[in-house]
Amino acid sequence: MLVCDDDADIGAALTIYLTQAGYRVLTARDGLEALQVTARETVHLVLLDVMMPRLDGIQTAVRLRETSHVPILFLSAKAEDTDRILGLTMGGDDYITKPFNPVELLARVKAALRRYTRFSGLAETTGSADGTTLQTGGLALDTESKRVTVDGDEVQLTALEYAILELLMRNLDALLTSAQIYEAVWDRPAFDVAKTVSVHVRHIREKIEADPKNPRYLKVVYGLGYKVGRRK
Predict the structure, then answer these.
(1) Section 183-188 average pLDDT
(2) Contact 214/220 with Cβ under 8 angstroms?
(3) What are the residue ranges spanned by the domains of the chain?
């Protein structure tokens, strides 16, 4: 994984925590260096500081998302909801505020890597060659290959987006709350998570819906939750 932070002390501390947990850690001091590292190395997760010289974390995440779906966990001293939502909107999977608890940070890293391994085809797959297809109308999700198609055209989702969509498609017509989605996908207790979930749901709708404002598949029941309905 890659740790990108312009604060040498924080970078060194993160490297120690993660190395002791058994991870191979690469480092970068700013966004441009992070892009160079990810271009030449295999990286399965990025811990990305927001405020950095030359190229900040937000701009770096946007650039990374042009070519990669690896989990991006933002690190930031900014704890306002607007900053958190901006980070998630620009491609982040999670947002961790400084100062952080090392135990919690490692738990979030492990959860993100589990999702990425499970939903991005990094783990060995089992089952029939044909896999299992979840489908409603023209929306199809192949749980073996982790491919999502809409009317035959493939849609590129991040591991987190795929996990949310699979959860909803395994529970067609069921209304799931933000807390239920968060606990199932993020794999930790939910607390004030409605905005976090809504950002990722919006990303999914923008990718699978011809008209995200009038969705055919992923419905929002305001104040209650989300569901994918059955369609012929």
Answers:
(1) 85
(2) no
(3) 2-119, 133-228
